Amino acid sequence: MFLQAVEDPQSFQAEHINRLFNQFNIAAACILLLVVFLVIYVTTKYRRRHGDDSEGAPIEGNRRVEILMIGFPTVLLAWFFYKTLAVSSAVMPPVNPTRQPDIIITGHQFWWEVSYPRNAGTPNPANSPNYVITANEVHLPVGRPLLMELRSADVIHDWWVPQLGNKMDLVPGNKNYLWLNIRRPGDYIGACSEFCGQQHAWMRIHVVAQEPADFARWLDSNARNANPPADALARAGETLFQTRTCAGCHRIRGTPADGAAGPDLTHVGNRSTILTGLLSTNEENLASWIDHPQEIKQGSYMPSFMFSKDSIKAIAHYLEQLK
Amino acid sequence: MGTTIKIPEPSAPFPGLGVENAQGLLQWISAVDHKIIGVMYLLTSVVFLVLGGVLALLMRVQLAIPMNHFLHPEVFNQFFTMHGTTMIFFVAMPAIFGFAVYFIPLMIGANEMAFPRLNAFGFWLTFFGGLLLYFSFVAGGAPDAGWFNYAPLNERNYSYNHGIDYFAIGLLVSGIGSVATSINIIVTVLHYRVPGMALNKLPLFVWMIFVNSFLLLAAFPALNAALAELLLDRELNAHFFNTAGGGSALLWQHLFWIFGHPEVYIVILPAFAIYSEVFQVFSRKPIFGYAFVAASSVAIALLSFGVWAHHMFAVGLGDTVNSFFGASSMLIAIPTGVKIFNWIATMWGGKIHFSVAMLFAISFLIEFTIGGLTGVAFAMFPIDWQLTDTYYVVAHMHYVFIGGVISGMLAGLFYWFPKITGKYLDEKAGKWFFWLFVIGFNGTFLIQHVLGMIGMPRRVYTYPNLPWYGVLNFTSTFFAFVMGFSILLLVFIMRRAMRHGTPAGPDPWNAYTLEWATRTSPPPLKNFEDLPAVTSRRAWWDMKQQAVNPHPQTKNDDPI
Lengths: 323, 560
Ligand SMILES: [Cu+2]
Ligand SMILES: [Cu+2]
Hints:
The complex is a heterodimer. Helix content of chain A is 36%, strand content 17%.
């Protein structure tokens, strides 16, 4: 993967902020250079010569210099404050209360719940889903302003994808919002940026930005219920999943599993990674996660179980097929 | 068997600790002399600096390479919490109070603080507050929710070991000590100045600590209230901050930062105070713009109560609030800039002596400008939305805290060590220390700006192997060890100076202010026998000029 920096903005919001940042950096560099220059100049010019024990010039101040010291920064700051307001209103315009969010992100210790409450942007609303819910991998359409609603199920988290612009906290008891207008399709990575507990480091974000048509297709396919198990091993896996507490924490649409304490697994096999990027999705990784979750992601809220090797293989096989 | 221990009166301002002197330790413990208490504050600060530094180095080892397994995440989280809490409350604060209670009476020509017992009380509260905090390590786990300890993560249901209780109690205890000492300083300055020393003739060090004490008095109640509420939440199931029970997560942030931002200035103003003395003495010139330097401290102190929500730009407070706090935060740059330029102007036309103290003051000018400028970037809140809670902010605050506060304390150490102990800190070894420290510090933190800009959040115990992450983190770790090594060197330099340092005499720097007017170094238990009335801001300098030296002295007379 390539470098994903704030200096390579890929959304309308990030571009605006980046422009402001660059302007400020130029001014800041000038001021820093001025200070460095003055310090070097003064310390070389007025260094004490060997054997000179006299006092320095008895200068106690100079009103004109002081006025300059106060006046110049004041003007500069006033200008930047004006720019700040302009960028802020471009990046975070107020939300019309009747406007429905395009996407709702709910932070959990230590994963992201992602839901699409309406079919905005799909070319054919008639047969598109009303509601899609998934986790960790966030699909978004490019080219139009999206309204994102941010909530938290437990402690404070923070949404931040550097190339997509401003971050925003997910505060329990509050609803925050964010505007997002992505320029180009691609994979963007970010991370939870408010310390939220033991696995804060592994609460990373993966945004998949897609052309509207691709996004609509993705939305459609994710509105489907889960695939029924295709072979005997997967069927065994499904039974285990439904009967051995997994169903109490995870949802698999189209089955009785309807838990909400862990990520939705309806199409977990379609997501490129699990555990917010810690492991790539394949049967082997799924098996080792189910086998010893507390060794892989210490302190996450999935308990360790005592399964036989066969049971684990069956569950992993079943989950991997949920595409 | 019925024998009572006689509590000894200290016999010297720096009583020995040796075994040959059975009551050495007891003399320290029972002391109410402001000089002994000052030294104990400073020693406390050094001990906690080493502890906090070791925690930092262990964290840097964990972060040296991607996906490292050196520290368990739980342990890492405890370490960064303890590192921040230690450095602010048990390194910066005791260092400040140490210099303040040692030198304020001396600089205003007094023989004691206004309330000597309160002074000792303040110290011991700080000391035991720190011990309580560290006791958590053996009592089931240290606090692990960060030094600003956000709700509701700090509540029982998310942090169930007792670390956070120790955090709250430890800070409450030391906070009460800080308030007591501030009151003590204010009364001392108002009431015990030598005749003729009007408030506008105070040495700048005293001026700034004086202003700072008011700041502290106003700021700590918010923290203490928040901590008391947190304890009620955790121990008695109240619901101040617990969102699950209808409390407010943001209330904690407001209370914490109403304290927390002024706290940033509480630790930086005393450093400014030290620089203001060091620049004068080693440029051989009076300060440039006394009134502006003093008034800008007052301006900073007042403004600092109106900027707290700049720590909360990303919590969704809305445009109006953000604009207000953005503007007020930007305003603070003006008095701060005034100070920087006045210090440069103080050197202008001087005869600059490159002592180690002066070197730290000069490096501060540049390092603090970097930290100050990135600070202004954060006041421009759309930039804050990108960079807050990343390594960019880690870099920013270390430029302010190390480039500003710690460098100031080190300048003060090299400047005043001869007065406190009677011995010079070796200047040659000191320069080695200076360069190692400055290179280590800048090497560690300059590149962390970049890490923030390429997306690394703060407070992560590990990170995936993304482009540049490994290299930059490894470099940072390497230079952190250079800095760690320099601190070892400093401890060694201090030990050597105490044992066989060159005797310094009462006034080694040919200085300007009254602490150098005492007959000996260290000053005698009773600081002054009598002092003539003061006529200018450089009282001791005047006395030397007019040869009305109250304590005729021979150069280099060995004080001990
Ligand atoms: Cu987090
Ligand atoms: Cu602040």
